Amino acid sequence: MKIADSTTEYSSCRSLPSRKYAEVKYNLNHSFVSTLSSLSFSPVSFFYSIMFRLKPSFPSLPRSRLYRSFSGAPKRPQYKTYFSENPSAPPRPPRRLISRFLGFSAIAFFAFGAGLSFQSFRTLNRIMAAPIPTNEETLSAYQAPDSLSAQIDETLRTHAEAEALRANPDFTEARPHHKIPETLRARSLTAGTLAGPGKIVVPPYVFSERDGKSMVSLMYLGSDVCGHPGIVHGGLLATLLDEGMARCCFPALPNKVAVTANLNIDYRAPAMADQYVALRAETVKVEGRKAWVEGRIETLPTDGSAPMVLVESKALFIEPRQAAVSISPKVIWNSH
Fold it and tell me: Which residues form the Thioesterase domain (predicted)?
């Protein structure tokens, strides 16, 4: 009976102010505990007295539920959490194939550009840091690896053609292959790959006329640069003419450098291996950044006989527009 009266009294006091409501709620709880304590069943009285006097550590204990049910406190809202493995959760839309392709392409392009820039910077740094020898220093830089190479080098150095050009004050003597830094010389085609015993046996002796008017290069071609057995490959002759004529016209251009725009080759006779040859070039016309050069390769007899023309060539060389700001004369070894 007391429980029913207390419930009626509690329901009638719900509209009181908050302070009065707290006092009434305390009185109701106290009266409810007193009623349970007066029961003859002592275990129940002891249990509820403990539950209403101790503060539980977790809100899920029975005391909290009983307290909310008898005190009229609002119930806590229930929340649900959906995990990724929940099949009822909405699936995440997959990335498009084109997006993945563009992403990986951008990463690959960035990595390639960074690697290329780093390698170019290292190469340029090595080039700029390496000292470039003078023309006189290149003449004594070559060390023959064997007796045959030493004999060929001595023959070229003391040849009548070399002596005549050396005595001409308008010509400057040098060995341009030794102007290339040793660390980079092995990567050069004519100074590295095609140089050595059996190939271009010794570095050529180059005599350049002032202002890029003409040039003469004396060399020896071995037996390991042949196309047909015993005949020097025509591609090697074209390469030698391309480099030789370019070296001839470099001093005549504003920034001492140019690229090949046109090269015409006329083969006149087979170039036999294991013989001395002379490359002769002449700058015939210069207009601004353009230079026209004519050249030929002929035999270099050691017995005083007349030379024979093996191949003739005409070429047009053009200086790049960016040469004044992007190319330093220090790195143009062959132009000196």
Answer: 230-299
